[in-house]
């Protein structure tokens, strides 16, 4: 894991991590994310929820990514000073057919619910009656919307890099305005 | 799986520990601690949970899972829990999850699981305040 906090030491604005696409590396980002979010003045509950969001997006980055020499990193960026607060994960897009359509369908499915709680509960019900537990349950993205209280989006750039983002109203910015 | 004592068994995997306590004849109690964030949690957790479910069914006991000391569950683990909850119901084993309501992420995650309480009396998802 390589990290950069490119701004002045007294006021880091953006956390950026370049990560090997493996599970242990992803898990190890929890502490730096929590440290960064706490330094930006977020309360522990919000920092925890956003740390969960980063973890779930990174897990999806591994699942949806296609890695090869020169295209073997996942990038995590968190900007906790902008409003809304932004968490973005960028991963080289895999060539497996249909994955992007799956992701699009999941994001649209979540947006189809008036409340993320309803979407989360519906997903739990679907999972409960499946014959087997699947790692492709889609629950992580629904959790980003429900527990993380984030809006989800994604796009693919001209270099076939998939960028998944979650935005959250920034409590620090709102308290500054208030 | 480690045997921690006459009535206790323990699963330790990475940052996750689950201790199974059979000291009460009518109850199999599982205490979860730490963090569960593996990519395939069912590979590790499911055999332990299945053994606990079999034990409960054979002894006409209930199953109680305590999550108050959990620090993190990834969505894959939540999926395993939901799936297991359904299996316990089908097996006719009463199951109770307890969580700490004062911890926001636990409250959000487990309140959603209360939807399964409405199916029948086999499932309870209970907040604890202490």
How does this structure look, described?
The complex is a heterodimer of chains A (178) and B (130). With 178 residues, chain A is α+β, with helices and mostly antiparallel strands. Chain A is 43% helix and 21% strand. Chain A has helices spanning 23-27, 30-39, 44-64, 99-111, 116-128, 139-146, 171-177, and strands at residues 2-4, 14-19, 74-79, 85-92, 151-156, 161-168. In chain A, strands 1-2-3-4-6-5 form a six-stranded antiparallel β-sheet, with helices on one face. In chain A, helix 3 (44-64) runs antiparallel to helix 6 (139-146) and helix 5 (116-128) packs antiparallel against helix 6 (139-146). The model of chain A has no long low-confidence stretch (mean pLDDT 89). With 130 residues, chain B is an alpha/beta fold. Chain B contains three helices and seven strands, in the order ββββαβαβαβ. A seven-stranded mixed β-sheet of chain B has the order 1-2-3-4-5-6-7, covered by helices on one side. In chain B, strand 6, helix 3 (104-113) and strand 7 form a beta-alpha-beta unit. The longest helix of chain B is centred in the middle third of the chain and has 18 residues, at 41-58. Chain B is globular. The chains are: A alpha+beta (178), B alpha/beta (130). The A-B interface holds A 23, 27, 30, 45, 48-49, 52, 55-56, 59, 62, 117, 120-121, 124-125, 127-130, 132-135, 137, 139-140, 143, 146-147 and B 35, 37-40, 42, 46, 72, 74-76, 78-80, 82-83, 85-86, 104-105, 108-109, 112-113, 115-116.
